[in-house]
């Protein structure tokens, strides 16, 4: 207790006011700050999602697998036959120039999901055929939208069929990173394998041919668990932008086609068929 000294003024006693806690204010400020920081990222992420139908072969290869030097041209290398794949991104293609440059085969995007048809399909599919190329159609799979069988039907009904004319390759299933969301389309590995079987079985029933499977090894490992069951009957089209195709998905001892670059000298993604022209003809004839 303080002692009062004579002659010194007496100070009135002040009761201590209760201190207001700063915790609620700090919490509010942190919440506002987090919202401000999150909003641009969310907006940017939404802007990065491309419109439905714009997907094409190899869309995620550089982002996920990287890109290396192009394969060297060497007379000691195995005989391979140059090809391209195109979609609506290429518009009307100058097929005569590609043929003159040594391109002998082509794949053209026909469909995606059950909601998109390539508006340039007729020019690209018929144009490549008319200059002498062996050509085929491909389907960009969206396993999160409809069943494999429904998408196989949509593909066959809109340009993805096959005929034994010596100039038509079996249809190709483009199964790779999802440009619109979750890379495995929200499916488990078993669910993805089941969806692919649903597609390839319906395609075989409709056309009499096993479709080509286009994919990348890293995606295949992640989204199918490196399933090996398709290798027995389905030609592999491997995507890897490097000097070698690298490791192949389980079960396949060799690739049939290799997409090695997305920056071709004239147009589209460029590919190598693993064999001479007569082997390409054999694949077309079934």
Describe this structure in words.
Residues 11-20 have a biased composition (Basic residues). This is Lysozyme. Keywords: Glycosidase, Hydrolase, Signal. It is an enzyme of class 3 (hydrolase). InterPro entries: GH, Glyco_hydro_25, Glyco_hydro_25_AS, Glyco_hydro_fam25_subgr. With 286 residues, this protein is α/β, with parallel strands linked by helices. The chain has one domain (61-285): Glycosidases (TIM Barrel). Helix content is 33%, strand content 15%. The protein is built from 8 helices and 9 strands. The protein has helices at residues 23-48, 61-65, 95-100, 121-130, 148-157, 189-207, 217-224, 277-285, and strands at residues 81-86, 105-112, 116-117, 134-140, 172-174, 212-215, 236-239, 257-261, 269-273. Strands 1-2-4-5-6-7-8-9 form an 8-stranded mixed barrel, surrounded by 4 helices. Strand 1, helix 3 and strand 2 form a beta-alpha-beta unit. The longest helix has 26 residues, at 23-48. It is globular, with a radius of gyration of 29 Å.
Strand content: 15-25%
Helix content: 25-40%
CATH topology: TIM Barrel
Annotated CATH architecture: Alpha-Beta Barrel
Average pLDDT taken over every residue = 85
Largest sheet: 8 strands, mixed, barrel
What's the number of extended β-strand segments? Answer: 9
Structural class of the secondary elements? Answer: alpha/beta
- Element order: H for helix, E for strand: HHEHEEHEHEHEHEEEH
CATH class: Alpha Beta
Globally, the shape reads globular
Strand adjacency order, main sheet: 1-2-4-5-6-7-8-9
Stretches where pLDDT falls below 50 for ≥5 residues? 1-18, 35-44
* Number of discrete domains: 1
Question: How many helix segments?
Answer: 8
CATH superfamily: Glycosidases
Distance between the termini: 106 Å
User: Gyration radius, to the nearest Å?
Assistant: 29 Å
Protein name: Lysozyme
Enzyme class: hydrolase
Keywords: Glycosidase, Hydrolase, Signal
Family: Belongs to the glycosyl hydrolase 25 family.
């Amino acid at each position: 207790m303080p002692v009062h000294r004579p002659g010194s003024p007496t100070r009135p006693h002040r009761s201590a006011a209760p201190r207001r806690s700063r915790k609620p204010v700090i919490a509010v400020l942190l919440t506002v700050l987090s919202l401000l920081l999150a909003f641009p990222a969310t907006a940017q992420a939404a802007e990065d999602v491309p419109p439905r139908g714009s997907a094409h072969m190899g869309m995620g290869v550089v982002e996920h697998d990287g890109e290396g030097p192009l394969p060297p041209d060497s007379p000691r290398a195995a005989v391979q036959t140059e090809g391209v794949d195109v979609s609506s991104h290429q518009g009307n293609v100058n097929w005569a120039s590609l043929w003159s440059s040594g391109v002998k085969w082509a794949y053209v995007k026909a469909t995606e999901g059950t909601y998109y048809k390539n508006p340039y399909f007729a020019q690209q599919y018929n144009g490549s055929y008319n200059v002498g190329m062996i050509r085929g159609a491909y389907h960009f799979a969206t396993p999160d939208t409809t069943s494999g069988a429904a998408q196989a039907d949509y593909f066959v009904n809109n340009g993805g069929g096959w005929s034994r004319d010596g100039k038509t390759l079996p249809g190709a299933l483009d199964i790779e990173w999802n440009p619109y969301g979750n890379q495995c389309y929200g499916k488990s590995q078993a669910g993805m394998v089941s969806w692919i079987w649903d597609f390839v079985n319906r395609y075989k029933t409709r056309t009499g041919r096993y479709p080509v499977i286009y994919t990348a090894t890293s995606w295949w490992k992640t989204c199918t668990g490196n399933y090996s069951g398709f290798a027995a009957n389905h030609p592999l089209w491997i995507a890897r932008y490097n000097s070698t195709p690298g490791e192949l998905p389980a079960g396949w001892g060799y690739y049939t086609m290799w997409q090695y670059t997305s920056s071709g000298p004239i147009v589209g993604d460029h590919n190598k068929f693993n064999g001479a022209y007569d082997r390409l003809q054999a694949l077309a004839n079934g």
